[in-house]
Amino acid sequence: MNSRRRSSKIALAAVSVGFMIVVLDAAALSVAIPDIKRAFGGSLASVQWVSNAYVVTFAGFMLSAGRVADRWGAKRTLLAGVAAFTITSVLCAVSPNISVLIVFRFLQGTAGAVLVTSAFSLIAHVFPGSDERAHALAMLNLCGSIGLTSGPLLAGVLVDTLSWRWVFLLNIVTGAFVALGLRLVSNPDPQRRLSVDIAGQILSVLSLGGLATALIEGRALGWTAPLTITGALVFIVAGIAFIAVERRRIDPMLPLSLFRTRSFTAGSVAVGVWRGSLYGLLFFLAFYFQHSHGFSSTLTGVAFIPITVTPLVSNYFSGSGIARWGSRFVAISGFAISAVGAGILFIASVTSGDYWLIGIALGLIGFGGGWAMPAVGHAALFNVPQQFSGIAAGVFNACGQTGALIGVALLGSLASGNAQLDLGTGATAVGALLVLTAVLLRRGLTVRT
């Protein structure tokens, strides 16, 4: 028992740090994006692709990554993901121009998908019980919050003192730590009968790529531009074909039956809304603070503290909250708190735009998300059969990344307009989505999941 408990703690530590790498990288990049734009030149759309190139492959390959984790074992898959993520981070750091950087970000997104999905799968295998899995997921999200907290501040210091390239080089040390820790963890039994859905994989990436193209280029070139229309058509056609392929397969990459479970469907929508709101705001506010308020990269990282530190506090208590009140209450109350923060952000946009009011708004948004997300993840994955835990985790996180893609594309495009007006537009959209999601969770989650 002591040996099992020790192995479980090591697994949780290694997995949590691995998850933190991915979150830290995404949060840090939001501060570095304006400096990357200055270093390489180019349009706002081009730097949006630096962010969304990663998200397209992250979300698209996450479904297959879940299948790979179930087939070859979560530990083995996680080690491969950590190694690939570290290598691609180095390649991003040495990119000579923005086009090469975008290519390497596509590759890094694939590695990130493997890392995150196998991390969640390993947690499901190591912690099969409901209560212990809830606390493990809370710890996983806590470490993600640490990455979210430290990422912008570290990036700001690195950009101002060294270069944006060091934002990617940060991943080397953490990647080595995870690899060493996982050596002491046993590999769950693989499910070798599962096959990888190549057709579904290609169609999912094409569909997400088309969506990103339509959203990003639509604002830059116009919604009737040929490239925008082409992207929209690729998204629709590939999406329909993907669903048709998955319905015909005996062992689909995306088992559509998962969405017959209300809690899984509601949770998947909720994680998409939250990540879209978070990363969309981070992308937009990086430009807003540096252009409208004249903040340096370091000061921009400091300005993000309210939305990145408060989840640390709420995440810490979320596991206990789930055990006491159930996932439904914790999730709904978290989204309600974040919606109040979005309302205050709107008030800031129509008054003086004073940072202290913005800081209060960001603090509430972050606190609500940190409180809600462990409950959302627990409720969504609670009734999924253990042998499909990797697939379900992949679908769940793919929904979150799809939300991030949409959020960065839509809120990021506001960075080129009137700052105060666009801040209000973004706050209104985020607030409305948070309220609607709280209503969905009230209907979709069981009372005591």
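Above is the first protein from milestone M3; the second protein from the same milestone is given next.
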Amino acid sequence: MVLAFSGVLFGGGASESPAAEGASAEPQPGTAAAEAPVVNPPLDVEYLDERSALEQGYAAATFAGGCFWCMEGPYDKLDGVVSTTSGYAGGHVVNPRYQEVGTGTTGHAQVVQVIYDPQVISYERLLEVFWVNVDPVDAGGQFCDRGSQYRSAIFYHTPQQREAAMQSRRRLDRSGVLPGPIVTEISELEAFYPAEEYHQGYYRKNPVRYQFYRTGCRRDARLTQLWGEQAE
């Protein structure tokens, strides 16, 4: 899918383009984000962590878009995406678990971490997919899920990712496409904690329950209202 307004989001003059500035949006080994710790993940969760991904020439991106069940699928179907893992980021508690995060007191958001091959797909493309899968003007959560744990956010791994995310948000805000100002936060990823195994790939393992939730939450209805045919 190519966004009809991608020229607005990721086009523009050379001064707005990371590539034109000689900057790559891909994480580099040795950066603080590349060394972000993953402490004691659930024992039954197998996933490709960022350190291992970097060693294989891959890169990582982390996005919060409300319920993490709904954010894996849009990335899983993209060429160049190696894996997605649901988890938690942005809080102050080490090794948070679902019940804790659900109280809204740990500061974490539900996120999906995307491992991708930067030779096949760009970070900017991942940003495009992120925007059309969230409600960027909702400050209280996402769709029927309320609370800071469901906020929309981009957690950058490198300064280059931060710059790309800031530029994409700025262009979208200026485009007039949305009915209000963008409230999606852009923050450095300090730590990523994988969620429990039963959350991983939930949309594949429980398709009926997943669709019942997604429809009842009116996620697709709101995305269509915001993005029209560009909605995932």
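Note on the second protein: Confidence is low (pLDDT under 50) at residues 10-39.
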